[in-house]
Amino acid sequence: MDTVIDYINLNRDRYLDELKTFLAIPSISAIGEHAGDVRRCAEWCAAEMRRIGMEHVTLHETPGHPIVYGDWLGAPGAPTILFYGHYDVQPVDPLHLWDSPPFDATIRDGEIYARGSADDKGQVFMHFKAIEAHMQQNGKLPVNMKIIVEGEEEVGSKNLDDFIESHKDALGADVVVISDSPMFDRGIPSICYGLRGLIYFQIDLRGTKSDLHSGSFGGAVANPNMVLAQILSQLKDKSGRIKIPGFYDDVKALREEERAAWKKLPFNETRYRKDLGAPKLFGETGYSTLERVWARPTVEVNGILGGFTGDGAKTVIPAVSMAKVSMRLVPNQDPDRIAELFETYVKKIAPKTVEVKVTRMHGGKPWMTDFDNPFVQAAGRAIEKGFGKAPVFNREGGSIPVVATFQEILGLPSVLFGVGLPDENAHAPNEKLDLNNFHGGVIASAYLYDEIANTTTR
Amino acid sequence: MDTVIDYINLNRDRYLDELKTFLAIPSISAIGEHAGDVRRCAEWCAAEMRRIGMEHVTLHETPGHPIVYGDWLGAPGAPTILFYGHYDVQPVDPLHLWDSPPFDATIRDGEIYARGSADDKGQVFMHFKAIEAHMQQNGKLPVNMKIIVEGEEEVGSKNLDDFIESHKDALGADVVVISDSPMFDRGIPSICYGLRGLIYFQIDLRGTKSDLHSGSFGGAVANPNMVLAQILSQLKDKSGRIKIPGFYDDVKALREEERAAWKKLPFNETRYRKDLGAPKLFGETGYSTLERVWARPTVEVNGILGGFTGDGAKTVIPAVSMAKVSMRLVPNQDPDRIAELFETYVKKIAPKTVEVKVTRMHGGKPWMTDFDNPFVQAAGRAIEKGFGKAPVFNREGGSIPVVATFQEILGLPSVLFGVGLPDENAHAPNEKLDLNNFHGGVIASAYLYDEIANTTTR
Q: pTM of this prediction?
């Protein structure tokens, strides 16, 4: 492995220059006018994969943006890694808040600023460069490798499930590796072994057929804004507990070892609160902030709209009002069952004075692997070698639906091997990736393949 | 009086043609580009007032749109009417919902369709034409008459109070006459003797310094949309009663005669509900719909906004959320006191997890006169002569702040002498005025001056 690591250290600057080329392609999947850029980016990935030694590299067409696939299967008897990443990026607006152009990667204070630097091009490219190092030095990888890089992660991966389903056999592997998440904190590398799931709804209320003058009708009809407030306020009680009957039935309790381990993490609640600018933190009674975010479900009102919202005053009783409500789920909550409980509850508590429509939108299942899973432990050792520091084992409050998909369709465990940072601005202006984390990440990835090679031969 | 009425009947068509000219001027006070049209309309009014025989006609400049004043004081010893109306109109959007151009008055099925037809040009013009008839037939009016026609009613009459205050002596009179309201129902003329007042607020909440990802932070911080829902839901209880402590302290109870009289009105609750398209009516327990709207206060959430409200799903915890909340007040509630109670209550029930800002916006006092007031009774007789039917005496749920202003600054009672209809679409597309009500209104106005002349000589 020493020669592989030497190669990585030697080529550090070139790697960075090549990453800049990757970051320069505005592969914004959400915006129709960028469809050509998205395809160009897929082609760039494919060419790069071929260059580093991957075989069978192909662009798989979908009804949306193409999926890039490639593999290297020259290690018979060794385990197979299925690597997943995405080459598409979020939109950039508001553009005026960027300190440097989003598609002209700029280095400042040891960070590379560009859209996609952390999410996810930088982290995909770190694996490409680790593979290159192995190939250049040893002419082979210690494991078999299958790579999927998709172009629709930022728009809900709508065509990925079909692709996986229809290539089930070809995608067989031992473990999935995904690098698309931040580490616990700057200087504190981590391995994530659990994610929350998501269900998202829109609630639409209609009180009357058109808006009414609040003088002429105020007091005689139900006001949909008020009814909406009543419904939403009955979702959570004052202790932060969700009031939907049955909601907690399948929630897997925190293990005592987890709680003990998390208590030891260097987490400063005061700094956290101040960074957010919150007057006071708030969450479910009986749980710490990390526990609330990582291991407890929540209901959030993502949006509300109804009536007059411009400057000034308009005396209107709106005909309709709307809320976007989502829930983060934890193991072993089932999104379908929770959706049913939610819809039943909302319809039960809504008064007969309004029409209620509940529309379910996208979502994903929660996911968790044991943190003593051997692949997770192998990843931990690789991180320690790459960053010179043992990682902490954490969960994440967010959702990566594809992780549950790999579990379900392919029966595969995933290792979340992320080197971003919590302040990376992934979906915001000034997205960035720490250069030391990128470099350490390439080294750690190179070690990861080696560690996984040794894992299944146990 | 017979010759006056004959003149009105004889000139019915010409009156209508002249009204069309008045309605053709797009005097939209809210839209800056129409400032020239608003002034042109003021000048048109002034010219018309001079033509019908008013004297001392002048345009009073204000920081906004001009106020047109004119008087005729040739009836020494007789009472003086101060007539108030407005020549400005509401904006017309959405324009595509109009069946005929808003400023090209069109007659269909006995109604004249145009912006301003009911609110308020048609009703102002009805008095101009009644005055013309008296002047043409008798060379004089039976009363002294002072006329104020303002150009900012639709934008809150912001410069009217100053004008009245600074012309206090010149505006001395016995009674104010205002024709800017609908009658009880088609075929049921009415005299309105009470109005609700209004206070309007904006509530702004801030939870964090910027929007947060609901995966990474959901469950750890208060969600301003949720907190807003909790606050709003605590404003009214399930029986429709307002929960602000002290809110009802000064509410004047309904008189038994009023309740009895209103019970006799031809009001069909089922038709009302169906016309509104409401699944079920809702209001304060223990009161009928008319009582709720005319004589009981209400709190309404006029607007709510927070977080993501576009199509689709965005997993955001908003940094801020906002509500517009207004209250309709009844005699003897004092807006200043209620505002204080409201602000205190909101701040008390808001959790410490968010910053709360309550901003008070415009408003007006509630107003009521005795329905046995001699001027009100005179108006009733005039309506009966004009429409061949005795009017009902009602209150209104809306607010006309200027009525309280005349009471306070000039110490004058007001007579609300309106001939619109509840379905006149005053602030909506396809505003209209019933032609028979217009014609009957000119006749009733002519009688009104006569009746008022006789009233004060009692």
A: 0.88
